[in-house]
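ok trying again, last paste got cut off:
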Amino acid sequence: MIAISDAISSSTGRAATEGPDAAGTGPRTGLARSPRRREPSHRPLRRSMSRAGMLFVAPAAVYVLVFQIVPVLYGLVLSFTEYTPLQRGAPTFVGLSNYGALIADGAFRNALWVTARYTLQVLPPTVVIALVLAMLANRPFRGVGLFRSALYVPHIVSLTAVSMIWLWMYSQNGLFNDVLEVLNLSPQKWLNDPETALNGVSVMRIWKALGSNMVLLLAGLQTIPRHLYEAASIDGAGLWHRFRHVTLPGLRPMLVYVVATDIIYLSQSFAEIFVLTSGGPMSSTTTVNYLIYTEAFEYSSMGSASAMAFVLFAFIAGLTLIALRGGRER
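nice, full thing came through this time. structure:
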């Protein structure tokens, strides 16, 4: 009996301490439950930061929307219409007629060929020579800062001003013909001959683009760890093998970037063509971008010019994708 009463009393005591709570939803521990500490809410701060971020981004977003996205969409709509700024009324919808006319247009096919030729004959020497100059500029020697600055100067001069200087050098009484005269050679019609005009423009553009490409490739070279070259030298790798197995793999992302941006800029060439040759002689230097300018602002055919612009966009996108796929690591 004593054991039973002890058991009852112990169970009663445990019931007093562990019995159901007032609501009868579960056991209650004997210890007093401490009041739950409420964490401070960060929601107002996050909202405030979100609003501040949106205010900072808003001007750039409005700029992109108004001056880039809307004109592109408007140009896409115009490419399916026949429209001139001089006419009254809305543009006339013509469907795919503008695109179909471009296929049969010999001037457009010639401009597309000139654009491709100009891009492909300027791009390789621009990248290769800039890489050699970047490797030279990456070496420590006296006057390396002046060397880098001298190579970069052409990039900070506007393309129009550079084209004016080269126009004088290519002229009949210009620098190049003076050099030929000193060498007892006959003067050349550099920009007035259909066979040499595009090559003359290409040489100027190569000289102009070297500085920017050199700086980018120099930055890429300086990110390659030096211990890789030291390890390659310890393994007996020569200059060529260090270049092939260390420099080129380390420089691959920057090389892809340089090639892709050069393709985009070269395919849209206009200023040097306008200043040096105005698309001549005999349309030998008429690029697609220059043809778009003449179609839109000389013949006031906005629909056809817009269609040319979107074909040029597809052309640039195709070349850029080829470059990106070619530079992908395997």
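cool. The beta strands are 81-82, 92-93. The CA atoms of residues 191 and 277 lie 7 Å apart.
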